[in-house]
Design goal:
The complex is a heterodimer of chains A (about 350) and B (about 325). With about 350 residues, chain A is an all-alpha fold. Chain A has helices at about 15, 25-45, 45-70, 80-95, 105-120, 130-150, 180-205, 205-215, 220-225, 230-255, 260-265, 265-280, 285-310, 315-335, 340-355, and strands at about 165, 170, 175, 260. Chain A has 2 domains: about 1-5 and about 20-45; about 45-265, no CATH class. Chain B has about 325 residues and is an all-alpha fold. The N and C termini of chain B lie far apart (about 60 Å). Chain B has 15 helices and no strands. Classes of the chains: A mainly alpha (about 350), B mainly alpha (about 325). At the A-B interface, helix 6, helix 9, helix 12 and helix 14 of A face helix 3, helix 5, helix 12 and helix 15 of B.
């Protein structure tokens, strides 16, 4: 009824190439932004923040980053956990070394550091492909985690080997440390997520994204039509790692506050983010959100249902979660290899014609 | 001879033994990859699952007992019998064959002709599923597995080396057994693939699915067979690792080590899996022995991966892999 492109005339090129060409989509997008920025901060409390919103926002950034690499450029990476750790430790070192600089810039620079490390570990992608590359990125995962565990300089020689986020403020409002208000941390992450999504969306719509997709679809053919594989692949690694690094920095500084690298940024984190990308949909920014929301909400729901509702012990619920997550991934791949994003696309197609079938 | 060199030799030998175990897991990967082009990430978890099932059957545990207890408020844990090792191994094998059939029926039959990366991700999903399933069925506590394999220091090697170097090498009996079993397994697999009808059919499927179909080979049967074989290899690997370090979650992490082994040896080569396993095993033990103390130890966590990474940059198809030819 409302979801129509009929009557929505474009009179300039800018209007023609905008992200949401259908008016209803555009309004929905602004409505979501308005709710996220203007409503949620006033009603949010500690439980919702820590159980749902912060993990969702931060994992969304990580998933967007990984989606650029895996979904758009076709380079499978199992090193996300390691790169998140780089972001976290870079942020920690910057926070402690330059306490006067605003943490906002620390997080961005941490992303930059991660981009550099990611590019370095992306170098083998020029020689090796597919599974070989996936396993090669495991080297990044294990080596980086080991490095942060064993070299005391990274955790400032603290006795526990942990890193703890000192208290930092933005505009005089604390966003890290113990004394934070839920709405402040929420808004900080939301700002980063919105910016990341905007940048990612426009990168993937533009020349860079088309080059990545050309490489993904067939690298030899892409090379022949003039895509430089070196620059395309390494730029994908750099951009992807940048977002993943920001996610890691926020995960440490804002969400957890204290991090033991082996536990928090282990191989499981890599798989979790990869699953978000797969379940959400490879090669879709919306998919990154959907996947992150799904895998953040699922454990919370299951826990509330099984532990809270049925009185099961927590370990049993955790096992069931494994089964369900694994089963869902397989089911998704069998039924819909393009993930939640594809379901969304199909729904929109249907909606455009509704109430008529054709 | 200086002491350092002798210790180094002992480390070398122990590395060889560890390498055999890596090679065992890697074998399962190669089998499935050759026959169906699926890079089976869940091989490690299959080893864990097999070992868990074996312990569960031997101890007479009630499957899903935690679940049943939590749902109905009962207090059941064991049937109260103990199954002899050999029978338990056979029963476990039957479970693995059933699993192979289910996996093929429910998952990979629907994914024929999909891109390899989709198949790979499906096996990651399968790995998660099996991991949860294994814990759900048999509980997640660390279990000891004893199927009657000898363990402890081998006195003969100890004495002989003491006679030569004046220092007895510590070589675990279990590792020697593992080496022997791995050797037998490899020979059996090679003979099976080369000289039996089913083995030939398996190689034909590996070569070209459609051509194999057109001469009347049942793809489904071959795939179930290959997954069962991989399940069997997983069971053997699970028994070895489980006896050595207890049946626990880290078993599936150890299996991740099989990945660099494969990269070194090449995904399609059975001898490659063995040689790659030995190189990784020896390499990481020696590296830990020589460089480890300088950089704070625990280099075993990443050495294998970095070695494989560096190696791949120079030889992308691995030591024995088929040459990668790209056509447009």
């Amino acid at each position: 009824m409302f979801y129509r492109e009929a009557g929505d005339f474009k009179t300039s090129y800018a209007e023609d190439t905008q992200t949401f060409p259908i008016r209803f989509d555009r309004y929905r997008y602004f409505a979501v932004l308005a709710v996220a920025f203007l409503v949620v901060p006033f009603v949010i409390n500690d439980y919702w923040l820590n159980a749902v919103f912060l993990p969702f926002l931060i994992y969304s950034i990580a998933a967007i980053g990984l989606n650029i690499l895996v979904g758009y450029c076709g380079q499978v990476s199992l090193g996300t956990g390691g790169f998140m750790a780089v972001g976290a430790y870079a942020c920690y070192k910057l926070m402690t070394a330059f306490p006067d600089v605003n943490i906002f810039f620390h997080v961005i620079i941490a992303g930059g550091v991660t981009a550099a490390v990611g590019t370095l570990f992306g170098l083998p992608s020029l020689r090796i492909k597919g599974f070989y590359l996936a396993v090669a990125t495991l080297a990044a995962q294990f080596f980086l985690v080991w490095l942060f565990n064993r070299v005391p300089w990274f955790y400032n020689y603290s006795a526990s080997g942990q890193i703890n986020a000192p208290e930092r403020t933005i505009f005089g409002i604390p966003v890290t440390g113990a004394e934070t208000a839920p709405w402040a941390t929420y808004l900080l992450c939301l700002v980063f997520l919105t910016a990341s999504a905007l940048i990612a969306r426009n990168l993937t719509r533009g020349m860079a994204g088309r080059k990545w997709m050309a490489i993904r679809d067939m690298d030899i053919a892409a090379e022949i039509i003039g895509v430089n594989p070196l620059r395309a692949k390494l730029s994908a690694f750099a951009v992807s790692s940048f977002f993943v690094g920001i996610a890691g920095a926020l995960f440490f500084a804002v969400y957890l506050g204290a991090v033991e690298v082996g536990e928090v940024f282990g191989i499981n984190k890599s798989f979790l983010v990869l699953f978000m990308v797969i379940i959400g949909g490879l090669g879709s920014i919306f998919g990154s959100f959907a996947g992150a929301a799904f895998l953040v909400l699922l454990p919370v729901l299951l826990k509330n249902l099984l532990v809270g509702g049925l009185g099961w012990p927590t370990d049993l619920a955790a096992h069931l979660e494994f089964i369900i997550v694994g089963g869902l991934i397989v089911t998704f791949l069998v039924a819909e290899p393009h993930g939640l994003a594809q379901l969304w696309r199909v729904a929109k197609e249907k909606l455009r014609l509704w109430p008529f079938p054709h | 001879m200086p002491e350092q060199v002798i210790w180094g030799m002992e480390v070398f030998l122990n590395g060889l033994m560890a390498g055999v175990l890596y090679a065992l897991v890697a074998l399962g990967f190669v089998l499935i990859f050759k026959a169906s082009g699926i890079f089976n990430y869940s091989q490690g978890v299959m080893a864990l699952f097999a070992a868990l099932t074996l312990v569960g059957i031997m101890e007479g545990q009630v499957p899903f007992s935690h679940l049943i207890n939590a749902t109905f408020g009962t207090e059941i844990h064991h049937f109260g019998w103990h199954v002899p090792a050999l029978l338990a191994i056979l029963l476990t094998m039957a479970v693995m064959v059933l699993l192979a059939w289910l996996v093929n029926k429910l998952v990979f039959q629907h994914l024929v002709n999909q891109e390899p990366i989709i198949l790979f991700m499906a096996t990651i999903g399968l790995a998660y599923f099996l991991e949860g399933m294994g814990d759900m069925m048999w509980g997640s506590d660390i279990k000891t597995l004893d199927v009657g394999l000898p363990q402890g220091i081998n006195p003969m090697i100890d004495e002989v080396t003491y006679g030569i170097f004046g220092y007895g090498f510590f070589i675990d009996n279990l590792d020697l057994w593992a080496t022997g079993i791995a050797a037998v397994l490899v020979v059996a697999l090679v003979v099976f693939a080369q000289y039996t009808k089913q083995g030939r059919a398996m190689r034909a499927v590996a070569d070209d699915h459609q051509a194999a179909l057109s001469v009347g080979i049942s793809l489904n049967f071959i795939w179930v067979m290959v997954w069962s074989l991989a399940g069997f290899v997983a069971l053997v690997a699970g028994i070895m690792w489980g006896t050595k370090s207890g049946v626990q979650f880290s078993l599936s992490l150890i299996a991740l080590k099989a990945l660099p082994v494969l990269m070194l040896g090449g995904f399609t080569s059975i001898p490659g899996a063995i040689v790659g396993g030995l190189i990784i095993g020896v390499g990481e033990k020696l590296f830990e022995f020589i460089v480890g103390p300088l950089v704070g130890g625990a280099t075993e966590n990443w050495f294998a991966y970095v070695l494989a990474l560096v190696f791949l940059v120079f030889r992308p198809q691995g030591l024995f892999g088929e040459k990668i030819i790209e056509r447009v």
